[in-house]
Fold this sequence. Notes:
By secondary structure, this protein is of the alpha/beta class. It has 16 helices and 16 strands. The protein has helices spanning 39-47, 59-66, 77-90, 113-116, 131-144, 164-180, 198-206, 220-226, 236-249, 268-277, 310-326, 385-391, 397-400, 405-408, 413-417, 433-449; strands at residues 2-7, 11-15, 21-25, 31-33, 52-55, 70-72, 94-99, 150-155, 184-190, 209-216, 253-260, 286-292, 350-352, 357-359, 373-376, 379-382. A 10-stranded mixed beta sheet has the order 12-11-10-9-8-7-13-14-15-16. A 3-stranded antiparallel beta sheet has the order 5-1-6. The two termini are 44 Å apart. One iron/sulfur cluster binds next to helix 15.
Amino acid sequence: MKKRVKASRYNHIVTGQDGDVLGFNAMSCGLGSIDPDKRDRFAQMTASREPFEIDSEDEFCKELFRGGFLIPEDLDELSSIRAAHYSARFSEQSTGMTIIPTLNCNFACDYCYEDSSVHVSKDPSKRAMSEEVQDNLVELAESRIKENSVFTVTWYGGEPLLRLDIIESLSKRFKEICERKQSRYFAGIITNGYLLTPRTAVILAQNGVKFCQVTLDGVKAVHDSRRPLRGGSGTFDRIVENVTAVSEQTDLTLSIRINADNRNSSSISELLCDLRKRGLHDREKVNIYFGQVLEYSNSCRDTPDFCMANEEFADFQVVAYRKALELDFRISTYPFANLGNCGAVKSVASIIEPSGDVHNCWNTVGRHDMRTGDLTHEGVDATRNSINWLGWTPFAVKCNDCEVLPVCMGGCPYRSLFGADENGGDNGTCIWWKFNLRKMLELFSEAQKRGKLAVSQRKR
Length: 460
Ligand code: SF4
Ligand code: SF4
């Protein structure tokens, strides 16, 4: 039987250094190596600008259709992405919250917003979540968790492990609601790692935590100078010892975020060698990834001159991940169709501060004037700021024509809303895939052949 099809606008074809031809589709995110005898046919079909006819029983055509490289003649891909985007943003099926049990921290990072923010109380006793706010939060969860849905919590701070008691108490209450409503409960935690002992990891796991993220700011000397304890001592050794022990003794998935900027980029391979010596390259549940330090983010507010622009960071990623692969680390940055973009533009996403201030974006935490709501016993009372996020759209002219739109979806909404384009003008919001996708695809293919490719759903 004949079928009319056309080539997807999100096809990417890469010829690797070893002559391998790879096909990637940014909507399905399928990556495949094309057999030498099919390459001409593949190139011809995917390059065609006009619809054409295929034999629907042809195995190769079927494969290309399944992988999204060929699509029905009458499918408007951009409209279908628009529909998927708005339905993901405004779906109530899966409810997520980021909860900050305390804004206190045992670290004194040189870039931290909390101590300098006029909006964060200087009184440590007022920086932890009160019983009243906890009760309001549980009522909010009760109203938002639907029958047979999924409820996810990310614990964030301050340093959330300073108030493990609040995490335990709230987790118990959330789990009870989810069980009653036959919904699934998942949690993750962003911690500085200093208190993440195996014993604490077991308690977290008992409370539904499946995923931990810790951050290193570079090799020991650099990390210790940027992320010391409040008393000034270094924290690198303890964090890495904790991560090693937790990965040996528990089932938690650990993600090590390595912050990179112009100050530490040249010493990243030294850090990777250090982590390898400790065996962290060989743990199935340990991933590393490189985080871009941005001028507007907490990590770089006071040190903008050291930030890498997006294109620069994209080049750095290729070099750093190649080094990581050489050292046998698993590569976990594989792109995925990010159709709803981030939690900041979702209708039900919420970040709850200990005071009851509600935010859409992680980057505005600690800024009372940028809160998008106030948590009360009747739910969230939205402020006018929330309109900015709800009204945001990724379908700006430049994005509509972009060949990586499905994996980027307009970049970071905070950057486009608040004009943080300083790192590259019009490209300031563009994600790295726009600049390094081809080189990264070669790397992914190599990692796949060596059994070192991990497909992760980590958010940017
Ligand atoms: S991606 Fe941007 S808008 Fe979304 S949470 Fe992060 S900083 Fe905020
Ligand atoms: S922000 Fe840039 S990379 Fe992302 S979809 Fe728009 S044009 Fe493409």
